[in-house]
Amino acid sequence: MALDSAKKLEIIATYGRKENDTGSSEVQIALLTARISELTEHLKIFKKDHASRLGLLKLVGQRRRLMKYFKRTDKESYMALVEKLNIRDNI
Predict the structure, then answer these.
(1) Fewest CB within a 10 Å sphere: which of 2, 68, 70, 89?
(2) What is the pTM of this model?
(3) Per-residue DSSP letter, 2
(4) What span, in angstroms and rounded, lies between the C-alpha atoms of 55 and 39?
(5) pLDDT of residue 41
(6) For 64-72, which contacts have Cβ atoms below 8 Å and span 24 or more sequence positions?
(7) Which of 91, 73, 87 minimizes the C-alpha distance to 25?
(8) Which one, of 14, 44, 30, lies nearest residue 86 by Cα?
(9) H/E stretch holding 80
(10) Cβ-based neighbours of 51, under 8 Å, separated by 6 or more
């Protein structure tokens, strides 16, 4: 269920602070969000795929921790990212 490299490069270019920025919180949260949405669509079709469901829960937890850190360090950028990615601010 990994993202293909073209989609990953597109996300990095969109959310990165500068070229080849793969470590910033914005990029990591955007990449996790893309993987979460792909896994969610997969699980709508294959309802009994419990291994993928466990992976989805781990990804959601990892994104939640990153979002919590990002909100604590840079609230304005966090709110803009949440709006841009269309995800809930429940932290």
Answers:
(1) 2
(2) 0.93
(3) P
(4) 9
(5) 96
(6) 64/91, 66/25, 66/28, 66/29, 66/32, 67/29, 67/91, 69/25, 70/25, 70/26, 70/29
(7) 73
(8) 30
(9) helix 75-85
(10) none
Q: b/e per residue, 26-42, with b = 16+ CB within 10 A?
A: bbbbbbbbbbbeebeee
Distances (CA, A) of 24 to 13, 35, 43, 46, 69: 12, 17, 29, 33, 11
Beta carbons within 10 angstroms of residue 58's beta carbon: 10
pLDDT, tens only, 5-45: 999 999 999 999 988 888 999 999 999 999 999 999 999 99
Whether the pLDDT of residue 1 is over 70: the answer is no
Q: Find out whether 16 and 22 touch, Cβ atoms under 8 Å.
A: yes
Single-letter code of the amino acid located at 80:
A
Tokens of 51: 């291994």
Q: What is the mean pLDDT of the chain?
A: 94
The three-state secondary structure class of 4 is: coil
